[in-house]
Amino acid sequence: MTLRHIAERANLSVSAVSMALQQHPRISADARARVQALARELGYVPNTAGRALRSQRSNALALIVPNTNQHVFGHAYFMHVLSGVTDVANERDYQLLVSTNPDEKHGKVAYERVMRAGTVDGVIVTSAPVADPNIARLVDSGLPVVLLGRYDHLPLAVSVGVDDIAAAVTMTEHLIVEHRRKSLVHISGPLEHQSAIDRRDGFLAACAAHGVRGEVVEGDYSEGSGAAAGHVIAVEFPDTDGVFAANDEMALSAMRRVALTGRSVSGDVSVVGFDDFGLSRVTTPSITTMHAPVEEMARLATRRLLDILRGTPIAEADTHAVLGADLVRRESCGCPPPL
């Protein structure tokens, strides 16, 4: 079924039918309604390939995640990113291509696949290490790019992120001020990623400001690394009375490890997390955490990318958008259960 078939039925030109389907104001409201009704009746589907050739656009975006499929689809963070990006892409009738790496040894593949193919109009990048040289190559390629996260070494690249430093300060001060904890440990994420660095730095800054002990044990955001960190804490820092994990999965493992040592979570040791992707609400006790607005961040990044594609200027103040995270009080730190 083509535009010509609809044009013959509607007694209009092909160009008039095309404009009617695009809601063009030059076509009367009655004609637009008649054409759209015929398109539905006849089962017309736009020829996106032909439209792309005419406009020099593919109407497709890429989400580059320089990790393996198992890593990407096994973590809730990426599902929230994907949800936010597809919300906006679907609204604007864009397709989405997700590009990952086949294994840990081939870190360039996710980028090269997109840059060589030339089949997308723009790119969103998430979860790339700070020192990943491929980000700068991608930005320098001229392909429109928006980064999820903070990349200070690329000051001209458009980015959308969360204020992880401020959020970590808030959470650490919650333990110190509201729960009187004096011996804290932070289970960090992998420290080649800026979000993990920022959460660690916010934790240490708050500890220093309040004169309490603050130790760091590095994890990798997995439950397994949280359990391993919990063992290190039990052996090396047995007097710890507060644990701030950089995500909720590691917080859950730390809670289990505390229980194995015979100490009580919330009573003897306050345990808190970060992200609030759902797990924190269903554990026993429920986990106090920072709510990271990841879907909102991904939606805003996609809108920014589409603005670039339309040629809409982005104000200098909006080049690096930073969203706040909210403290969600639950039981694992000693707060009363939520209503």
UniProtKB/TrEMBL annotation:
List UniProt keywords, sorted A-Z: DNA-binding, Transcription, Transcription regulation
Keyword Transcription (UniProt): yes
Which SUPFAM superfamilies would you find in this protein's record?
lambda repressor-like DNA-binding domains, Periplasmic binding protein-like I
Q: Mind telling me which CDD domains this protein's record contains?
A: HTH_LacI (cd01392), PBP1_LacI_sugar_binding-like (cd06267)
List the InterPro entries hit by this protein, alphabetically: HTH_LacI, LacI/GalR-like_sensor, Lambda_DNA-bd_dom_sf, Peripla_BP_I
Q: Write out the coiled-coil annotation as residue ranges.
A: none
Q: Which Pfam families match?
A: LacI (PF00356), Peripla_BP_3 (PF13377)
What protein is this chain from? LacI family DNA-binding transcriptional regulator
One GO term in the molecular function aspect is: DNA-binding transcription factor activity
Please tell me whether the keyword DNA-binding is annotated for this protein: yes
- HTH lacI-type domain ranges (all copies): 1-55
